[in-house]
Amino acid sequence: MPTPGPPAAADLTWRPLQRADAPAVFALVAAIEDADAHPFRTSLPEVEDDLDSPWQDPATDTLGGFDDAGELRAYGGVATRPGDTGVVRAFVHGGVHPDRRGEGIGRAVVAWLTGRAREILAASDQELPGRIATYLEDDGPLAERHLYERAGYGTRRYYATLRRDLAEPAPAVGLDARLRLEPWTPDLDEATRLAHNDAFRDHWGSQPQAPELWAHGRSLFAPQWSFVVVDPAPDAAALAADPDIEPETRAHVAAGGTLVVGYHLATRAEQDWPVQGYTSGYTDALGVRRSYRGRRIAPALLAAGMRSFAADRMQYAVLDVDTENPTGAYGLYSSLGYVKTVGSRMLSIEL
Questions:
Q1: Bridge partners for 295 per DSSP
Q2: pLDDT per residue over 80-133, tens digit each?
């Protein structure tokens, strides 16, 4: 299948994006987020992370539309993820400068994104279902949502952003004597990845995180706000005999590696604070191994995160949750004082 050509829209000149375009992409995204009153802001390091993604070829998977003055007025990108096992996914994103809307540019960009995503999935050597997906804010422009819907996308999942006032002290949550709460450190990162893959095996849309994916895009990572719970003396024989334990964990423990059974990884998104109207620490990832659920590990990790946020004078703890999370996470967060602020959704084409 040939690579989709550039959109035939307006009077823009189209070419692939380059790493040197990061400031222009950042400025365009900022203009879009300001105009659409997004509840967050994308930072320049995040844009750079995106353009540096090893599983996106900028020459074929990105597109920028420039006006006669050389200003970027529209952009798009398609990215896959290494390690997908249940469904092969292609994620699309893009936007048009607010001053250039209503000219058919957005429709052309979505058509290009969808065509390129179909091409990538068709070239996959995995005999799996395919998914082309994008994420939109619930309160974002209806015109943008309608662009994707007219291109065949449908809403598949809803997410909620929750916050918790840190003026209220974090609860005291004890762990049983066998488990230990520790700060996250780099030498525990691989064990944390393995715990994440186990924790999210029963979550809709989740796929295993390959090492290169797990380690990428950490420009906002806050290790000082991140914690793990470990089992310092796991039953290695029981782990080896348990058919539900993934082979990587068996090999890791057999080699003497630490068994992480729960984790709280946080980010510090300072660019969001002026928009939010308050300072916050963000729980980017929270999970508990399936065989360790029901032992108050998640509340203990959240409480540790809250205390670390508060110690740095943050006003709120913030996180996002799939509203249909199978572990009852929404109820857990509500019981700890989290309340919804805004929502978002995933739209997709299922192939």
A1: none
A2: 887 777 788 999 999 999 999 999 999 999 999 999 999 999 988 777 899 999
Residue matched to tokens 């009077």: 11
Read off the pTM.
0.89
Phi-psi region of 102 (alpha: psi -120 to 50; beta: other; left: phi over 0): left
Mean pLDDT for the chain? 91
Tracing tokens 């990105």 back to the chain, one arrives at 62
Q: What is the pLDDT of residues 223-253, one digit of tens each?
A: 999 999 999 988 777 777 777 778 888 888 8
Q: How far apart are CA 106 and CA 20, in angstroms?
A: 23
CATH superfamily ID and name for 13-152: Gcn5-related N-acetyltransferase (GNAT) (3.40.630.30)
- Please list the residue range(s) of the chain that carry CATH number 3.40.630.30: 13-152, 162-344
CB 288 within 8 Å of CB 260: no
